[in-house]
Design goal:
Elements (H helix, E strand, L loop, with lengths): L13 E5 L2 E6 L7 E15 L9 E10 L9 H18 L5 E5 L5 H8 L3 E5 L1 H12 L6 E11 L5 E10 L2 E8 L2 E2 L10 H11 L11 H10 L5 E2 L2 H11 L11 H10 L11 E3 L5 E3 L3 H6 L6 H27 L3 E5 L6 H13 L3 E3 L11 H13 L2
Parallel strand pairs: 3-5, 5-6, 7-14, 9-13, 14-15
Antiparallel strand pairs: 1-2, 3-4, 7-8, 8-9, 10-11, 12-13
């Protein structure tokens, strides 16, 4: 109701109560810049530029870290202008001149491109290592971790799209010990707004004929057969997209996460037990859970949609427990962390924590920092510290 120009854009924060605590999905007006103490001392003032989606940045120096307000997706000129402005403003506000920058290892992210062009000493960090270190950094009293980093996609150490990983160790020293059965995703990043692509990928991988009359699945299938623009993915976020599509909830979404949100809402009214999915090691001794047995149920229209959705959630919660038990049999005691945007799903997360605690695991979910990509900048600082200690 005024004509004054906006100097510094500020979104409202968003919280969700999960496991009896209000947890941030987005930090914003009223609680940012968020300053937290570091469990170590930064030798050099450092800037962490986060990821590409839900972007936030962090400024770390001495024993302090400050997390910026929500900036958002860096896919427009305006958002990139705000990104540059926030970097400048934070340094001016706290009278700190950064000397090094840490960014996501994905070279195509706008934040990573800025880091490479900044002229500062550069430290790339893998996406899911930052997610894991975000959890470990918030609960720094634990020394040994198994962190489930479940999201839609992120550049992995093997140059595939990760998103269903269990990482063992501590900041700076993560080892992938468990994951999901990989699949080839037609259209790559396009699948984030087109759940039918994830559904098609799973069905074709399992030799199930699947098509949708409203979309050009035939052309996508030809590309998939030739692996043209079909990166390999292990992302649990895409499994949730596929479940939303196969149950008929949505095929094209207007915002990221719409399919999984609809699936969670449907599952809240369902009553179905979990399906135990096969778990076995691959050629690199990474334990892989096979999602294929779920497809027949998700496609079975004779079962009420709410029960199919509930079974999917229950089964994915059991996946967390199965993998944790398998790794404990080899590695002994550790804390379990849940990081990544998939764990914004209250039904999945609360059920997974319940199962883990029944089996005497110490379980942690971020409380001060978002579990999604908005927490990457915090995790990047924690991961960098672990790497520099070697």
């Amino acid at each position: 109701h005024h004509n004054r120009p906006i100097q510094r854009p500020a979104d409202d924060p968003v919280y969700r109560v999960i496991h009896n605590k209000a947890r941030p999905l987005r930090l914003g007006r009223g609680n940012t810049p968020l300053e937290l103490p570091l469990p170590f001392r930064m030798q050099v003032p450092t800037l962490a530029v986060g990821g590409h989606m839900k972007n936030t940045i962090a400024l770390a120096w001495d024993e302090r870290i400050v997390i910026s307000p929500h900036i958002g997706e860096l896919d427009s000129l305006r958002s990139q202008q705000v990104f540059n402005q926030v970097i400048s403003d934070l340094q001016t506000l706290y009278q700190v001149d950064v000397e090094q920058v840490v960014c996501d290892a994905h070279p195509g992210y706008a934040s990573s491109r800025w880091a490479y062009q900044s002229g500062l000493t550069l430290h790339p960090v893998f996406h899911h290592h930052a997610h894991a270190s975000c959890v470990a950094g918030e609960f720094s009293h634990e020394n040994q971790w198994l962190v489930f980093t479940w999201d839609g996609s992120g550049f992995g150490t093997d140059e595939t799209l990760w998103g269903g990983e269990a990482l063992f160790g501590q900041s700076g020293h993560w080892q992938r010990v468990a994951s999901m059965r990989p699949f080839y995703l037609p259209g790559g990043e396009q699948a984030g707004r087109a759940p039918w692509r994830s559904a098609a990928a799973l069905c074709w991988q399992a030799n199930i004929q699947w098509q949708h009359s409203a979309y050009n699945t035939e052309l996508a299938h030809h590309a998939w057969q030739r692996k043209v623009n079909c990166p390999q993915s292990s992302a649990v976020g895409r499994l949730f997209d596929a479940a939303a599509s196969l149950t008929g909830l949505v095929q094209i979404t207007s915002f990221e996460g719409q399919g999984p949100m609809l699936l969670e809402a449907s599952a809240s009214n369902g009553s179905a037990e979990a399906m135990t999915l096969p778990l076995s090691p691959d050629e690199n001794d990474v334990w892989r859970t096979d999602w294929e047995p779920l497809l027949a149920l998700l496609l079975n229209d004779s079962v009420p949609l709410v029960d199919r959705a509930r079974c999917f959630h229950e089964s994915m919660a059991v996946v967390v427990l199965q993998q944790a038990l398998q790794i404990r049999a080899v590695q002994g005691d550790f804390a379990v962390g849940l990081g990544g945007g998939v764990f914004q799903n209250r039904l999945l997360t609360e059920r997974a924590i319940e199962l883990l605690e029944q089996h005497d695991f110490r379980c942690y979910l971020p409380h001060q920092i978002p579990a999604n990509d908005a927490g990457l900048c915090f995790g990047q600082i924690m991961e960098l510290n672990g790497l520099l200690q070697d």
